[in-house]
Structures are given as C-alpha cells and as structure tokens.
Amino acid sequence: MVKRRTVIVTEDPKLHLVWIYDRIFIKPLPRYIISYAFWRDFIGDAEDADRIRRAALGYLRTYLYLVRYESDFRIAQDSGLQLIPTDITWEQFSNFASDLANITDYDVSARYAYGEIRLTRLNFYAPFLLRKSYFQRVEYQYGTYFSRFYGPVLFVFGVASIVLSGLQVAVAVDEPDKNSRSLSVVALWWQKNGSLRSEIDFAS
C-alpha cells in the first residue's frame, strides 16, 4: 500500500510477487496448502518431493512478510482480493505464521530467496536464460508494444546523423591529403548507401 501498487490476483505461481510499474501480482493462499494432510499425502511421497517442498515452503514464507500486522490481514481478506480464506482468524494466522519464521533461505527454492522481482527485468533476460522472447507478456496493444523500441531507434538515428555530419565537415575541408581522400570515399559511400536505403524504404 505504501508503494501505491495495484494488487493483481493471479493463480499462476510464476507471477507471485512479480511487479511492473504500478502493479504487483500476488497468488492467493490456497486452502489446501495450509493443510497437514496435503503435505503428508501429496508432497511426502511425490517423485520431485524435495523440489516441490522447497517451492511450497518459499511460497508460504512470502505471506510471513506480506501480512505482518492485523491491518494487512484485513486487507488480504478483503472481498476484492481474497488472498486469505475468510474463515481464518487473525489469531489462527498469527500462530501459523510464527512457524514460517523458522524457514531459512536454504529451505526454499532459489526463486524465493528473493522477494519482489521486476517483470521488465525478467522479460529482458528471458531470451538469454529461458530461450523465450519474454517471461510474461502483459501488453497486448501494438502502440504500447512498439513504444519500447522508440528509445533505441532514436539513439541509432542520432548517432548516424552525428557521424554523417562529421564526415560532411571532413569532406568540406580543403586538405587534399591521403586522410581526407579516405574520408571522402567513406562519406560518399555513406551518403549513397543511405540514399539507396531511403528509396527502398519509401518504395516499400
């Protein structure tokens, strides 16, 4: 609330505590995950029991930091969010959360060794680490999608304009030495190539 972010409820575990601009995604606390029978019957004998247990413990521990006070608890139980089941009392949650304080970073998966993660950063590294074009797409309008390319494109045009202007100045200087002739050749090639590309772009 202090950071003035809008809470977006999601059921996708990978988006839990991922934020972008003024939005943060939070996965509600499922009723089954606070059940002893679930941990005993479904996680205890699973093939990837250790991996699942570490991920579940890390997810549970996030609520220790999300809900620190009774006011946080009331917000989490708000009808518009329903992050925590409404039949759980503050006293019950406090007793449950006190055990979560004993969970260390070693007990959780690597993801939950960190807190909130910026989605724009995840999308930036996704092509290199995940071999995907993005981690999670949140913009579905072309205007918003292409707006992120405006900065790099303007930067390239700015650099090209400066280089071309510098070459034109160098050609204009009347010093018929070897260096000036080389600059003249480069400048003419740049102008010819740039003009040809402009004509092709215009024709297309």
pLDDT below 50 for ≥5 consecutive residues: which ranges?
195-204
SSE string, helix = H, strand = E?
Answer: EEEHHHHEHHHH
Please indicate the percent range of residues in DSSP E strands (runs of 2 or more). 5-15%
Note the total helix count: 8
Q: Quaternary status of these chains?
A: single chain
Pfam families: DUF6601
Transmembrane segments: 149-173
Keywords: Membrane, Transmembrane, Transmembrane helix
Structural account:
The chain is built from 8 helices and 4 strands. The protein is an alpha/beta fold and about 200 residues long. It folds into 2 domains: about 130 residues, no CATH class; about 60 residues, no CATH class. A hairpin with a 2-residue loop joins β2 and β3. The longest helix is centred in the last third of the chain and has 26 residues. InterPro entries: DUF6601 (IPR046536). Keywords: Membrane, Transmembrane, Transmembrane helix.
Record the SSE blueprint:
Layout lengths: L5 E4 L8 E3 L2 E4 L9 H8 L5 H18 L3 H7 L13 H11 L16 E2 H11 L12 H6 L2 H23 L5 H26 L1
Parallel strand pairs: 1-3, 2-4
Antiparallel strand pairs: 2-3
Helix pairs in contact: 7-8
Brief descriptors of the model:
elongated; alpha/beta; transmembrane helix; 204 residues; 2 domains; DUF6601
In short:
This protein has 204 residues and is of the alpha/beta class. It has helices at residues 36-43, 49-66, 70-76, 90-100, 119-129, 142-147, 150-172, 178-203, and strands at 6-9, 18-20, 23-26, 117-118. The protein has 8 helices and 4 strands.
